[in-house]
Fold these 2 entries.
Entry 1:
Amino acid sequence: MSLKRHIPFLRWSFLRVVTGTRSLTTTGQIGDGREAAAVDYVLSHARAGDIDDVLARLDEFAYEQSLLINIGDEKGVLLDAAVQRVNPALALELGTYCGYGALRIARAAPSARIYSVELAEANADNARQIWAHAGVADRITCVVGTIGDGGRTLDALTARHGFAAGALDFLFLDHDKDAYLPDLHSILDRGWLHPGSVVVADNVKLPGAPRYREYMRAQQGTRWDTVEHKTHVEYQSLLPDLVLESTFLG
Ligand SMILES: C[S@@+](CC[C@H](N)C(=O)[O-])C[C@H]1O[C@@H](n2cnc3c(N)ncnc32)[C@H](O)[C@@H]1O
């Protein structure tokens, strides 16, 4: 592994992510056009209809061109394993970005319907192009909005997309880290989860979701059964991260 792959601070595109944090929270993008460049890269380099190749080209772009804030290849293996364990019919991701995470879910659960909620229209457009190129646009739907938007997105998922009591098998939290816990509570309030539903949460150590982690620790063995996976922040091997995999006990 090259030193640049190991040590993120040697990569300008990583440092640009750190300075682009403000842009990220308002626009959902780093602010230097890398997400649109990633779409161009996939459309021109990846074999159409080949999910593996589309994911590999996104990883390649993130390592060699500009860092992307996808769950990435290392943590993606944890996501794949959790999805395969559940084999969901219905899965929901919060935080679409370029569509990488949803694509991994689609690959791991070939018969699942997948919904991904994203606050930024530009990211939804990018992700839809990538999913279409991978040949899974009929199975993954991006809903522009947030779970915290006063019920608009929750109502849309209910009325238009078949979200109902006990229907949601798998939930992937990978959006605003401060929203993990309130959004999980909103979903619990709707009754969509059932005993055996699994919630995977990325970036619990970095940038960090401490209240979410405390909640899962406090509920261990009562409402939730959580495994904490020690791993690394995407696309490098220096900075530690945690992925939480929590099974709902009801
Ligand atoms: C880390 S990226 C998601 C990466 C994606 N899950 C993947 O693995 O490919 C975070 C995304 O969440 C979006 N986001 C931030 N706050 C959000 C919110 N409250 N609801 C939905 N999306 C949000 C951002 O615009 C950004 O696209």
Entry 2:
Amino acid sequence: MTRSAERESYMIGSSDLDENDLLKIAKTIIARIYGKSSNDLLSYLIENGYIAEETLSQDTGIKSNEGRKILQYLSDEAIVVPDKVRIDGSVLHVWRLNKSALLAFVAKKLKKTKEKLELRMKYEAENTVYECPQCKRTYTLEVAFVNDFHCQYDGSLLIEETNKDIRIKTLKEAIERVEYLVKRVEQTRY
Ligand SMILES: [Zn+2]
């Protein structure tokens, strides 16, 4: 094997792996928004390339009105596009998977996640959090102040929370992970 072929096969191998990972992420995100059925529908779409309205429930096991609703959502995001396929003389109305739009959708959602994490980290970094030593509930300064620095549930005296650095570090790591995923999604081309 020549050096370039070797590199090529390595690249194909690794991009295959990437694709599976990315599709797994896409499925998780979409299932969180549209429910677990969307998972089966998306799996079928990824495997088959398109899904026919006429055979939707027998192909995926999803009730056709529920499946149509999910497809409508996916269509709004341009993740599926309408098309027609002629099989044995009859015309099927199909939805084709648009992988580029799927990637764009995943990137968009990941960026939103990153923004949320960054806001939370900023808040945590700038605000003192109070903790109940009894039940471990945490309070912001405002809420702790309103309650005279006592726990609303068991009346214990609140103390300044000490795990702040650990929480910020965890958030920072989560942000870095999401950043890495965004980069990978954006580097992938179909
Ligand atoms: Zn408490």
